[in-house]
Amino acid sequence: MSTVSEPDGVEAALARLKDLHPKVIDLSLGRIRTLLDKLGNPERRLPPVLHVAGTNGKGSVVATTRAIAEAAGLRVHVYTSPHLVRFNERIRLAGSLIADAHLVALIDEVVAVNGDDPITFFEVTTAAAFKAFADVPADLAIVEVGLGGRFDATNVIPKPAACAITPVSLDHKEYLGEDVAGIAAEKAGILKREVPAVIGPQLDCSAAAIRRIAREARAPLHMIDQDWTICRQTDDRGADYLVYRDTLERFDLPMPGLPGAHQIQNAGVAVALLRHQDEVVVPAAAYRAGLEWVRWPARLQRLTQGSLREVLPEAATLWLDGGHNEAAGQVLRRHFSSLDPDRDAFFLVVGMMKGKEHADFLGAFSGLAEQCLTVPIPGQENTMRAGELAGIASAAGYPAQPAASVRSALKRLGDACPPGKRPVVLITGSLYLAGEVLRENGTPPV
Would I find NAD among this entry's keywords (predicted)? Predict the structure, then answer.
């Protein structure tokens, strides 16, 4: 029988949890419902919840929604996954990352209450987050789906204030299905009766699947380009801004603080999500302030300082992004296609996990990357071998070689840059790799 231990650090608590319940993916709601019932059903005592699913952009939508809500003076809980450097990043209580002692006590309590019943790592941590959210006062909770939607452990909230589905693409096919329409249907499983749902850009097949599930669930949909729109405009002085419209109002907004053209649509989902719920009040000024100061690590994050940045020449720019599927690759390609080939030399450092669409992701950079160095992801048993990954990159049409580490890759790329050109380096391929980069660079999320 499991026993409660004395708090002795988050890593030790997580190690005990993994020993008891290996970190496997087994999508089901029965186990967590039983566990939450033993805990007194904290999922029924949460502040108003915004539930966010999708393939690409979920984290950015969550971060932008949180920034806007906090700019409105609201106390906001946030649950996301995975973390980058510290597990505490997954649970934000009323604006701050959960404290170590609180997290350890929660994990131990949940494990003890669960006893010897079958459970997964993610189910335990989700139950712990919901227990914390129920115990600590807040005005709003933003909950990101872990994987899929219909059978994800977060999908036990009886009636969220609103839901959102960001763009759906192929990912986790071994769990969610082999086609985009099927994956979209799984993600639309979060939709609830009479709960408004904001839908971001979708392929025709995924939009049709979402509409079908919404009809069955009797969930009202608010679709981009039909019920709400967001677009970039340029004023008389040449400055860009955003125009948001829905059935009630039109207003101007600043460009989002997150870089990349794709963040315009993510910002629109966040704005629409808050505008289509009626549990909390968000003034217009909060939308503007939140968009300006939102930050989200490892999503087109420019690293301007740190031990890894110092490896590159002063004229270089270093970017970090955790993208790992074809849609993410195309977003990154569009962003870096604006580089001046006469002045900039674009390089990739890539590490990926097994089971991903390696060729589709790497193929997005064909004709753009001058060279790619592939690396293993430290501490991950399921990391793709650097040599094998280099072969896939080479087949995509650009030179690629394996490197022992990110640090050695950066050193080699800095030395390889043609004279007179500025190195532009993107480290990408995995959020696990991004977390290791932020850790080694000395710039963890806060």
Answer: no
Query: Do 356 and 288 sit in the same domain of this protein?
Result: no
CA-to-CA distance for 334 and 151, rounded, in angstroms?
34
113 phi, psi to nearest 5 deg: -65, -35
Last residue of a domain, one of 260, 293, 326: 293
Domain end position, chosen among 293, 315, 347: 293
CA distance 202 to 181: 10
Is residue 285 domain-shared with residue 374, that is, in the same domain? Answer: no
* Model confidence pLDDT, tens digit, residues 253-292: 999 999 999 999 999 999 999 999 999 999 999 999 999 9
Q: Indicate the residue type of 368.
A: L
Q: How many CB atoms lie within 10 A of CB 99?
A: 13
List, for residues 161-188, the tens digit of each pLDDT value. Answer: 999 999 998 665 555 556 899 999 999 9
Q: What are phi and psi of 381, to 5 degrees?
A: -65, -30
pTM for the model: 0.91
Alpha-helix runs per DSSP H in 49-115? 58-71, 100-114
